[in-house]
Every structure is written in C-alpha cells, then in structure tokens.
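Morning F.,

Quick status update on the modeling queue. The single chain you submitted on Monday has been processed. Sequence for confirmation:
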Amino acid sequence: MARQHLPYERTAEALRDLYGIEVSTGFLDRCYAEGASNLDGFVDTVKELLRAEPVVHVDETPTGGTKSVWFHVVASERYTLLHADVTRGLNGVVRTGVLPGYEGIAVHDRLAQYDSYTRRRARLLRSHLQRALASVETIVGQHVWSRQMSELLTEMHNAATTPGRRASWPSAAAARRFLEATTRSCNGPCS
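Structure tokens below.
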C-alpha cells in the first residue's frame, strides 16, 4: 500500500499468499484511512519541531515522470517532513507549513519562492553555487576565475567539515566565516 505503492488488490493477494489471511480491499482502505488520521497530530508535531531547529534544508521535486504532484521537503539533522502538493510554487511552500513563522537558517537552491521567507537568514547549497560557476566557465574570458572559485569552495568545504584537516590557507574557522558570508541569500535577482 503506502510505502511500497501497492494497490489494495495486490496487498490483499500478498496477505493471502504469505500468511493465509483473507481480507477485502474495503478492510485495507479502512486500515489505511485510520492510519492516516492517526498521523495528524504527529505531522503537526514534526512541523513544530522543524520550526524550532536552527537550520533546515528546503527543496521540492516532482513525482515520477509527471509534474502534476510535487513533493516539498523540509529537513534538519533530526527531522524530515515530506508534503505532496499540486504546485511547486509558493502556495505549496505555504501548505507545507514550516517556513511561515520559521526564524532559523534555511538552506535552499535559490528558487525564488523561498526568498519571501529566507532572504535574511538563508544559505545556498554549495553544489548549486558550483553548478552556477560551471555555467560561468563556458563564457569566454570567465573560465579561469570561475574554476578557481569552484576549487576554493571545495577546499573550504573540506577544511570546514573534515576534523583534523589542514587547509592551505589560514583556518577552518575562516573557511566557515567565508562560506557563510558568500552563500547568504543574494541581494537582487537570485536567478
């Protein structure tokens, strides 16, 4: 059913074949609905816990091969919330229910819908910065500095996140400060 995306008929068949239990699809539907209703308080609690986290990562992705449903994710080191919505946009972010009222640092991919919530306390993903730098490398006369910046971002990330690693420049603390300063939400257009 839910986690394995099995139709009720296949689930009933599996229960019969594996355990000799005969159940109707109506019974399985009632079990599914009851289980879902029992999660209401749990989901609200996860939203509250995420709002209390100092740092969260926010993202969205389409389901399967269609773009008719989007999964919005809000995650910290301890908690993850997935919300399915019909839109990738701001309304989907609002209905996910974490960013409105969130005061911590939100790490995201520069998608404009996050700006209204994270402009002052945002960090961009290093991988997205490096992807943007790779695009800049293709511009005539821009490849040297953009490649050097990408290499510097990698070195700073490694120095800041690898215990005992020595950077070829002053300190891991300086790397963290530089990364924080350079990956804050951009001023002006973020695309």
